[in-house]
Amino acid sequence: MDRRLIIEHIPRLRRYARALVGDRYVADDLVQDTLERAWNKFYLWRPGSDLRAWLFTIMHNVFVNQARRRRYEIEQAMDELPAIAVRATQGEQLELQDVDRVLRSLPVEQREVVLLVAVEQLTYEEVSCALDIPIGTVMSRLSRARERMRQLLGGQAVMPLKVVK
Amino acid sequence: MKSLTEAELHTYIDGALSESARAEIETWLASHPEDAERLRAYAEQNALLRSFYSPVLDEPVPAALLAVRPRVWRRYAAAAAIFALGIGLGWMIRGMFITPQILPVSLARLAATAHVVYSPEVRHPVEVAASEEEHLVGWLSKRLGTTLKAPKLAPLGYELVGGRLLSGPQGPVAHFMYQDGRGQRLTLYVSRQRGEPRDTAFRFSQEDRVSVFYWVDGNFGYALSGEIKREQLLQVAEVVYKQLNP
Q1: How many CB atoms lie within 10 A of CB B64?
Q2: Contacts of A95 in chain B (CB under 8 A)
Q3: pLDDT digits (tens, 9 = 90+) for A135-156
Q4: Same structural domain for residues B26 and B146?
Q5: Would you tell me which residues 65-124 of chain A have a C-beta closer than 8 angstroms to some C-beta of chain B?
Q6: Are B152 and B229 members of one domain?
Q7: ipTM score
Q8: Structural domain of residue B12, as residue ranges?
């Protein structure tokens, strides 16, 4: 078993975890739990298949399990989020921070999809595999998330969306 | 022109389109400015998200993450279970309410704080000295509601100084102190963990000058702290772990 195979993915796992949970230490704990699990289940990985997508799958499962255990904390955190649109008017730095706040205001299912598509640049099929949801669900979550972010970032009027199936 | 689906529009900004598909979408967008504006905003979101989070890629990877290894300790799981089973209180509390779990990271911080507070003590480093080890261990075991052991670290040069009872966020904490010939002190912090019993591998945290190896085993969290090098501390931590899980 080659440790380097997994180790080279750590920076990206950290980026995804940080974006997903926000706090640096909580995120690194999530990465650590993911790595432990990956090591213990490494025999399940099929050589030749995409290791990175497999690691994201594991991280998703670890995250969901932890979130279930820590639902109370997460709900509390959600209560503290701003419900109003943030207008980015003061230059790029502000916009960058806004994008984080807005992302954090999304339901976690939508946040995962947006991050995997937009930041990690997984294909829709890979996201569907990693999160174990049908591709139609990937698309509808992505669509809802992007539209909600657009409204919050730009303060746009609500635009009716076509139903995606 | 056939109407494009929402999904097709998204593929335009997420890549991997054939030339013809791309051209088809561009034709559509030319006559649907609202869709074009929406896609522009989505593409901008992609760029903003990437620039906000990508600096993480350039951060040095914490050593604790590089140190994660396949666990070889599973074979001790049965022994660890005995540790977790000698508990009355835990069973009563289990499942009664949902409590946020104390994060292992804060376990390390609490332990490091206790280390910093008590290890410089000259006259009163402990409440009960090692000369009364049996009494000490019996007392702390009773307060934590489990059968504790004070690991024997003499082969590594550390003698038990004694121990004390501390108050932690999860209730009573057992705190053992060791010292080597040069007066270098190590402390072992043992606290009950709320929530489901679980196991973690060793984790390392550097809390200012204090190095901490910590782990959760069933319902208990353990943290070994000392102002010594990580490798030396790890050696001790492994011995502690093995003695607690024979």
Answers
A1: 20
A2: 48
A3: 999 999 999 999 999 988 875 4
A4: no
A5: 69-73, 95-97, 99-100, 103, 114-115, 117-119, 121, 123-124
A6: yes
A7: 0.80
A8: 6-57
